[in-house]
Design brief:
Layout: H1 4-13, H2 19-25, H3 30-43, H4 49-60, H5 62-65, H6 70-85, H7 91-99, H8 103-109, E1 133-141, E2 150-155, E3 158-163, H9 166-171, H10 175-198, E4 201-210, H11 272-288, H12 298-309, H13 319-330, H14 333-336, E5 345-354, E6 360-369, E7 375-382, H15 388-405, E8 410-417, E9 422-426
Parallel strand pairs: 1-4, 7-8
Antiparallel strand pairs: 2-3, 5-6, 6-7, 8-9
Helix pairs in contact: 3-4, 4-6, 11-12, 12-13
């Protein structure tokens, strides 16, 4: 009797075989193909990405069959919408984006947990920089060093590329310093990383170091050498009576109150108008990020920045309208104050922080005034209609982050509505 596992075993015999074609051609699974996959395969390349994903949700009744995953299923739909709006409008582009995830790309699919939930947060060592947690468990693996033999050396403005192996470095007086300089730089980076992961814990720190067992000891010192062996070859034996039973607390998972066979995804899908307005707002943010202080050439700079950033977007914006709107906004008396150079003032734009959950936060404009007393003005630009109440939580979170980093500063948060030419101060 044919089993589904037979299909996967075909792949083991021949890596070039396609699983879906064997599943499609197998008489045992023909009815399942027709019911669940045939329509999807026919519409790939014709349906927009969002509609294709919606069809998958409907076919497999994902919200109904995986109620405990409702939060991620909803987040995934949201990610598809965002990526479709940014140009990843077909399945191939979306898969390429998903397969090469750096920290910024991973954030598209991540679900931010509320601070009041007791949960384990998994993140890379680098992303933990600047954060703090009650208990930290670091997993440190004895990974192989980068075997790249490509080395670089700058001389008189020219970058020279060398192919250097360890054996070459040992016999060449010219290559040895280049080899050792890179090795020293890697060791310093490792020590910096060790410092980061060793200073994140508030109360408890556990380093689980997994070392490779080798027959001969490495001639060169490695970062892993600073950790002593505690369970080398012989694992720690725990007596049965020493193991205490832990009662797990039941966690309630909120699922959709009613799961239906078909979902009206069309009403959730953003319109052309909403995409246009969002892109226009992003363009205004890009331009304003380049205006540090106002001057006689500001109007000309606005036009130049428009020309620079316009190519990022697919829409045909009205340059005259946007430039005039921004120029009028910047010439408001109450706005000029925030774009004026003063003694003891430092202005930063598009400042990035990582909050306690590991999420990346980008603040539009920070103004540091230290002439008389230490003050920070946090300014966030908004386009479109006024909606201060809905933005208040975001600004409060930003203030909390700044308060953690700049403990001696007074912080003032304001929302600047570009289209409305209006400023609202956020008061807690």
């Amino acid at each position: 009797e044919a089993k589904l596992m037979d299909i996967f075993e075909i792949k083991q015999r021949d890596r070039k075989e396609l699983l879906y074609s064997n599943f499609h051609d197998h008489p045992k699974f023909q009815e399942y193909w027709n019911e669940y996959f045939a329509e999807l395969f026919k519409k790939v390349g014709y349906l927009p990405l969002y509609e294709l994903v919606s069809l998958v949700y409907s076919k497999f009744k994902l919200f109904e069959n995986f109620k405990e995953e409702a939060a991620f299923l909803a987040k995934f739909l949201d990610a598809v919408i965002k990526l479709e709006g940014s140009g990843a409008g077909n399945l191939r582009t979306f898969l390429e984006f998903s397969q090469d995830l750096d920290d910024d790309k991973k954030a598209v699919f991540s679900i931010d947990l509320p601070n009041y939930i007791d949960a384990v947060r998994v993140m890379s060592f680098h992303k933990s920089k600047g954060l703090g947690f009650s208990v930290i468990i670091n997993l440190i693996y004895d990974e192989r060093d980068d075997t790249s033999a490509m080395y670089f050396k700058e001389s008189e403005g020219i970058i020279n590329v060398f192919h250097i192996t360890k054996e070459m470095a040992e016999v060449s007086l010219k290559l040895k310093p280049i080899y050792q300089a890179k090795k020293l730089d890697e060791d310093v980076q490792d020590l910096n990383l060790l410092y980061v992961i060793s200073t994140r814990a508030k109360h408890e720190l556990y380093n689980l170091v997994i070392k490779k067992i080798t027959k001969t000891k490495s001639k060169e010192a490695k970062l892993m050498d600073i950790f002593e062996n505690y369970e080398s070859k012989s694992p720690l034996v725990i007596k049965q009576k020493e193991i205490k039973e832990i009662k797990l607390k039941q966690v309630d998972i909120i699922t959709p109150s009613h799961a239906q066979d078909t979902y009206d995804f069309e009403n959730l899908k953003p319109t052309y108008k909403s995409h246009f307005e969002t892109s226009e707002g992003s363009l205004c943010h890009d331009i304003l990020s380049k205006i540090i202080v106002l001057g006689p050439k500001t109007a000309k700079e606005l036009q130049e920045h428009y020309d620079t950033f316009k190519s990022k977007y697919d829409f045909d914006f009205k340059k005259t309208k946007i430039v005039k709107s921004l120029n009028d906004f910047l010439n408001m008396p109450e706005i000029k104050e925030y774009f004026t150079d003063k003694p003891g003032r430092l202005i930063k734009t598009e400042v990035e922080f990582i909050d306690k959950t590991g999420a990346l936060r980008r603040m539009d404009r920070l103004i540091f005034d230290e002439e008389r007393e230490k003050n920070i003005i946090l300014m966030d630009f908004k386009t479109g209609a006024e909606n201060t109440e809905s933005y208040k939580k975001q600004m409060t979170d930003y203030e909390a982050i700044l308060g953690e980093v700049y403990k001696d500063f007074n912080i003032k948060a304001v929302i600047a509505y570009v289209d409305l030419q209006k400023i609202c101060e956020i008061k807690n």
